[in-house]
Design brief:
Growth Hormone, Chain: A, globular, 23 helices, mainly alpha, transmembrane transporter activity, MFS_dom, two-stranded antiparallel ribbon
Length: 507
């Protein structure tokens, strides 16, 4: 058995990546599931906006004499009929300020604050055990979210869920950065951080179709029970099958002089212009991603209620997004040796720039065009997260790595995670679609410019120091360092000829 274990040891890093990443996926599934199940939960718990909505699945908008959204009150909504059948209902639509607070600030406030604490503790204690405990916390919270009877209970549980999930990123990235070498780091970080989009993508079929099954008469609650149970299984695997890796210096921190490294403080690290600009650029990009994540399903249900896009959104997010993540990591890892860390910034800037016009198309176009452009946008846009944090861990000293990631995520999530709440008031003024142009598409474009600016602050490829060449003509007497005769060499006589002449003259 021991011999077999040794033979399979090469698979251990991949196993760690799988367990940590899948755990992150289910944490993010719990995070984003609210965006897909919001309408069902709102009808059950009675929160958010009420509007006139289509309640038939076998008719198209073009067949309706009057669109449901034109009704401003329940009595008018009740008059809309087709062939004697009411096709509209006055009910909760899952949107409104209550939903935006539930999806964003209530989660983000705890997620970011506890995330800083987790980053600090990760630099001091066993990261594997901490990650297992965090997984238990968010897993139990997801399960309990399926039992709520009141809106405030759901808000409280999302806050507890956020506290547990806040440890996934700093703990997971710290573990993985100590296991995998530099030539695989961006790819590994991309796969791990794809957990955000994996959980978000899986949320579409889970949140749309599982409630419709109404298994055991539980409706939307079954989706939360299932996700939470899987999270607890992954917590078990994390605790009992993973081991804490040895902490190692990587990237720039491995090249810095040891004495200089002692003078570095956490303030020195976070005040680095590169970290500041990267963090601001990431915050803007995160705003775009969160804005679309929180509003994607509701947007398509609002504008195209007669189209079932659940599986299309799943395929675009999981399949195309996954390809983009892998390609981005590979490209970044391949060229980093030639251009240094700045190559990662170049890949970031170009990928987000290319994704921007297609992101616009995903909101502007009709369903078919929207899915096509969304797929192209996702391919390029999802390159960003893994490459970003590969850079961060490479320019931050070992002893502050997890703390810096925690602070980085605190700023990034507070800005990027809370800005989408502005979609609600802005949409009331200029329209829902138009507000997404600003906070989704505009954020992609602005982040591209900011990532490009960061490129000029990054170092190029590291050139190994070459030893000074020796003049090999003649005899090299340097090798005779142990000569105890102290007799002058021929070279010394030649070099000091003038001095010898002076001494001879004095004699």
């Amino acid at each position: 058995m021991l011999e077999l274990t040794k033979k399979l040891a090469f698979l251990y890093p991949t196993y760690v990546l799988a367990v940590v990443s899948i755990g992150y996926i289910f944490g993010e599934l719990g995070h984003y599931l609210i965006g897909v199940t919001s309408k069902a939960i709102a009808k059950d718990l009675h929160f958010g906006d009420i509007a006139c909505q289509l309640n038939l699945t076998h008719v198209y908008l073009t067949e309706l004499p009057v669109k449901c959204a034109t009704a401003q009150n329940e009595s008018v909504c009740a008059t809309y009929e087709i062939n004697g059948t009411r096709y509209c209902e006055w009910t909760y639509n899952g949107l409104g300020l209550d939903y935006q607070i539930l999806a964003g600030p209530s989660f983000i406030a705890v997620f970011t604050i506890v995330g800083v604490l987790m980053g600090f503790l990760a630099d001091k204690f066993n990261r594997v055990k901490m990650l297992a405990v965090c997984t238990v916390v968010f897993g139990v919270s997801i399960i309990l979210s399926g039992t709520v009877k009141e809106f405030w209970q759901l808000v409280l549980l999302r806050m507890i869920m956020a506290a547990g999930e806040s440890g996934c990123n700093p703990l997971g990235q710290g573990i993985l950065s100590d296991i995998f070498p530099e030539d695989k780091r961006a790819l590994v970080m991309a796969v791990f951080n794809w957990g955000i989009y994996g959980g978000y993508g899986i949320g579409f079929p889970v949140g749309r179709y599982v409630p419709h099954l109404n298994a055991w008469g539980l409706g939307w609650r079954v989706a939360y029970y299932g996700a939470g149970i899987v999270a607890l299984i992954l917590a078990f695997l994390t605790w009992f099958t993973l081991r804490e890796p040895e902490r190692t210096d990587i990237g720039e921190s491995a090249q810095n002089d040891h004495e200089d490294a002692k003078k570095v403080t956490i303030w020195t690290v976070i005040s680095d212009p590169r970290i500041i600009l990267l963090c601001l650029a990431a915050s803007i990009r995160h705003c775009g991603g969160m804005c679309f994540a929180y509003n994607c399903d509701l947007y398509y249900q609002t504008y195209f209620p007669d189209y079932d896009l659940g599986w299309w959104l799943f395929a675009v997010t999981i399949v195309i997004g996954s390809i983009g993540v892998v390609i981005g990591g590979i490209v970044s890892d391949k060229i980093v040796a030639k251009m240094g860390i700045r190559s990662r910034c170049v890949v970031l800037a170009i990928s987000q720039l290319v994704a921007t016009p297609f992101a616009f198309g995903s909101v502007f176009c009709t369903p078919t065009g929207a899915m096509i452009t969304l797929g192209i946008s996702y391919f390029f846009a999802e390159m960003w997260f893994g490459i970003l944090f590969a850079m961060v861990v490479e320019i931050v000293p070992l002893k502050f790595r997890s703390t810096t990631i925690g602070i980085f995520l605190f700023v990034m999530n507070n800005i990027g995670g809370n800005l989408p709440i502005a979609v609600e008031p802005v949409s009331k003024q200029i329209g829902y679609r138009e507000s997404l142009y600003i906070f989704y598409v505009g954020a992609y474009a602005l982040s591209s410019i900011m990532f490009l600016s960061t490129t000029f602050l990054m170092d190029g490829p590291v050139v190994p120091a070459s030893s000074p060449s020796k003049n090999l003509s003649g005899h090299d007497n340097v090798v005779f360092t142990g000569d105890d005769t102290n007799l002058p060499t021929i070279t010394a006589l030649v070099r000091n000829g003038k001095k010898l002449d002076d001494e001879s003259s004095r004699l």
